[in-house]
Each structure stands twice: as structure tokens, then as C-alpha cells.
Fold each of these.
Amino acid sequence: MDGLADVGEHSHFKMRLFITILLVISVLYLFCAPVSAKSYLEGLEVIVIVEKCNLRKAPDTSKKNVIVVLSKNEKATVMDTLTREGHLWYLVKTPNYEGWLSASVSTLNKKISNFSLSDLIYKKTLINLEKEYPAKYFNLYNKVKKYYSKKEFDDLLLDQSNLLPQREYLDKLVFLASPVSIKKQNKQHRDWVSILVNQKTLNNGKLFFEKHKIHFLNAQKDTGVQASDIISILNWESALGKYRGKYEIFKIFIHQYFHIDEVEFELFKKGHYQKKGAMDRPAAVKRLKKIKKRALNNLSQLLIWARQTGFDPKIVKGSWAGAIGIPQFMPASMAYAVDGDKDGLIDLNTVPDSIFSVATYLKRHKYKERGREYAFYRYNHSDMYVRGVKLYSDKFKMLMPGLNTIE
């Protein structure tokens, strides 16, 4: 009897072990299974963006599964997609072959949208960005996939709370998309030099410098960038931190990247291209293409920066153009940001980090090799900006005769 009991107990143990193994395998499958988005991407065109790349029999980088080598600008049609081990793949069909293409060597070409004034996507009360803009959505994901799982990315972008273009955000988007926006900006143009370079701003700069003198001098010593040039840029960009912006830049870039085409279409249908001073439509669309490209770059860099430093990208505030902090860095410029106070964090709303970040940016943009005016122009592509920053710096040095300069 004891022998039979042992046999029964042993069989029961094996059954429990078998069930446990099945459960483990099931859980692993749920976490490791490829993420498919065939319903959204099927039929989209994909374009090769590198000189040479491989079309493969399977979605992996094995040298043995290469079908054919594709060249830059070759096109294919997406049949399916999956994410495996953090790598995004497209199953594509060319005129002669069918196989897997890495998303990292290609870009999705969005379909020509047939907008309807009565059913514009950006006016909906609930928008599934992945469904409505699959090419844009996956092109953005492709840029950040090393830092976000597909689920994390979806959770961030498919949450519609406080994300729809409304009120001031919509007003700014409409202004940016308008074919007469350039004319309006030129009409509103002011010579900011006299506003930002005067005795009052110089006196404010002197007080600011004395308060943060150690950081200015350390940045000057470490980078070779004159302290007067650093404070001049901080004065121009935000009045030494007084004006940093009130807009959530995540929303700014989301709207520019995903919705600006529809806004332009609505303006076109409502006759805005017939207004005096309007750009012709081909030129306006070309301009918007550049805006979308910059928005994609800044949005992806914002998400990467958020993941690397552990903050919520949705709470970052800046100017309506998306510039951040005292030095008004765009997210795409955060590679030049520096931890000036050595506290382990980079925060462009703190003075030490702002001082060292500006100095680093100028140094990295050939301040010493090609001169400070060249570096100023790289910071802001405006002749008035260069003129104003240089003038303030020169007057500041006269106000502070004991300030060391870098030869």
C-alpha cells in the first residue's frame, strides 16, 4: 500500500510540475511574443533610407537569411509588422521579392489623406493616433523603441486626457499652419535689440552675474567661452529666466507632427490662400513638411530624454515653439545640456546648469574655431539675434571692467 501511495504521490508531483512549466511558458510567451499591427500598417509604402540594406527571410539579423540587398530610396509595400526583442520589423513586398525589412533602415510613407471638412480627425473628441496616423505613429515609435516597449509607448500616446488640440494650443497650431503666418510674423516684427539691450537689462545682468559669478567664471575657464557671451544669450532667450514659457511642449509637438496637415487643409478649403500676402500652396506645404520633421525630431528627443532621466514628458513646459528653461533649449539640443552644479541632475530651470549648457553649446559649435558670431548664429538663425547678443556682450564687458576675457 505504501508503494502504491508513493507512486500516486509521484504522479501527482509530475502533473503539478508539468502544469507549472506550462504556466511559465505561457507567461514568457505573453511577454516575448511579437507585437503585430497589421490592421493599421497593411498597405502602407516603406522607403529605404540607407545606402544598402538586407531584405530577409526571417525577422532577425542572421547572415544566412538574406534574400536580396536593397538600395536607398527603393520602395516596398507593408504586409505585416512585429516587434521582437525591442526591434521593429516590417514584412514587405517588392515587385520581385517578399521578406522582412528592419524599421531602422527605412521610413513609412504616409498615405495621401482625403480629408473631409465635416470629419477632420483633430476635431474628434477621442483620437486613436495609431489608427488614424499609422505611418507617423510607427515612424515616431521607431525612433524611441530602444527606450520604450510598444506597450509603454502606446500607454503614453494613446492616453487622450488633456492631449487634444484645444484653446491656445489650437490657436498656435492654426497660426503656424496658416499660409499668411510668415507675413503676419514679418508685420509683427520688432527690433528686439533696443528692447533687450539697454541700461536696465545691463544692470539686471550685472546683479545676476554677481549672484552666480562662480558658475560663470568656472564655465568660462572650462569651455573657453566668455562669461559675457553666456549671460548675453541668457538675457536674450528668457530675460535671465523671467520668461520661460507656459506651454506643455509634449502637446505642442504632438499637434505639429500629427495634426498640422489637417489644419492646413481646412485653411485651404476656407480660402486662406486667397488672402493678401499668402504663400502659394506648394511652398506652404513644403514649409509644413520641415515643421513636421522638426516636430518629429524634438518629440522623439523629448521622449528619450524623459526616459533617460526619469521624468514625465507631459509635464515639461516651455515656449509655444517648444523651447525649454532659462536657455530655451529645444529637446533636440539636449545633447549639449550639462550638469553645471554637479548634483547628478540636468535641469535647465536652474542657473548653473543653464550657464554650463550654453557654454557647452557654443563651444561645440566652433566658438573658438570660427568665432563667436558663427556660434551665436548656430544657437538662433537670426541676424538680428547675432547682432543683439554681440552688442549686449560687448556693453556688459564695459560695465564689468574686471571681467576676465578668453584670448
Amino acid sequence: MSPRFITNLVVLLAGGFVVVSSQTFGAQTTRWIAFGVALGTLGVIALAQRSRARGMIQSALDAMIGLLAVWSAVASMVFNGSTLVWLSFADGLGLATLAIGGVFAHELSTERVVHSLATGEPSSDSSVKPTERYSAAA
């Protein structure tokens, strides 16, 4: 599995966990869960930035996820009561939505590569030599 897929999956699961916990637990428990998930998400995104092969779309999504995680950490310490619960719910939905966007972007780029391999389109790279076709013996 690619690091892009793994980081998006981790953020998706973390966002879903915040959504469920915000509607399940009280405000104080939700506060610390949202704060911990926000810091964990920032850590995952920071580690993911070490990879130079993430692409422009994934890097933009990572920046939005990072900004949302910073906001979630601040909001979880500033707000109380039902405001905190609903902001945590919205933050979790936002993380999950951005992560789904990252998974879609990853899968579409993978599908494009598989399609070009399946159709046998020639490469535009001059260093790639065409291969000969052999049929398999039955």
C-alpha cells in the first residue's frame, strides 16, 4: 500500500472516531478525544510530508487537513458544552471528508496508471523502450 493511501485512511478513521465520540460521550471526554486526535493527525500529516512523491493535490489536501487539525485542537480547548460537541462533530466530518477526497485522488491516479498499462499506450518518455509481445503457450 502506498503512504498516501495509508495516511488518508488513518485520517479518515480518526475523523470518524471523533464524529462518533462527539455524539456518544460527554463534553469533557469529547474535548480530550478531539484534542488528542487533532494532535495525532498533525503528527501523521507532518510525517507524511517527508515523502516528496505526494503530488500537488495530496499536498493541498494535507495542508487543509493540517489547518483543520490546528483549529480542532484550539477549539477543543477554548469552547465548552454543546458548542464543543458540535464543533468536534463538524471537525470530525471535515477530517473524514478531506481524507475521502485524498483516497479518491489516490485511487483515480492509480486507475489512470492501470488503464494506461492495460491499453498499451506508448510512453512519452524517450528512455523507455517498447517491449516485444509474446503470447503464452497453452
